[in-house]
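Sat 14:20. Reprocessing the chain from the morning session after the first attempt stalled halfway. Input below, unchanged.
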Amino acid sequence: MLVIETARLVLHPYTPILASMIADGAPRDPRWAPDYPFTGDRDTARMYLRAGAPGGLWVPYAVQVRDSGVFVGGAGFHGAPDGHGIVEIGYGLAESARGLGYATEAARALVEAAAAAGARRVVAELEFDNPPSAAVLARLGFTAATPLHWFRELH
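Finished this time. Tokens:
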């Protein structure tokens, strides 16, 4: 199990048990923020389980705030890099955890992990016009190919 740690966050890779709990929203873990998991987390957990609950680096992660121990959202990969070394990331936080820099910190950790594992390009797709999420990507050196499609070359 590959846990990714940053200064303020711990990213826990999905396991079948964790994903099942998130997908169902139950049993509620007492460490979950009151507004976690939200719809995006539940959908990601269901997709992970439908994919056969893969292991390794290229999975979704539950985002936990180190100091409080509270889980506040998710960040992770949409699968392993393709034949060209391109991997997609995504992230989402409970509303109670937004505006604190956690999304930038989690996404930065994913980009660094992808680079260390040999990925050549990281891409991210915004589901809708989302200026805060676009700002996260811009801070991390991503370029907007379109307002909704972003990329960053690694090598």
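Strands lie at 4-5, 9-13, 60-65, 71-77, 86-93, 121-125, 143-144, 149-153.
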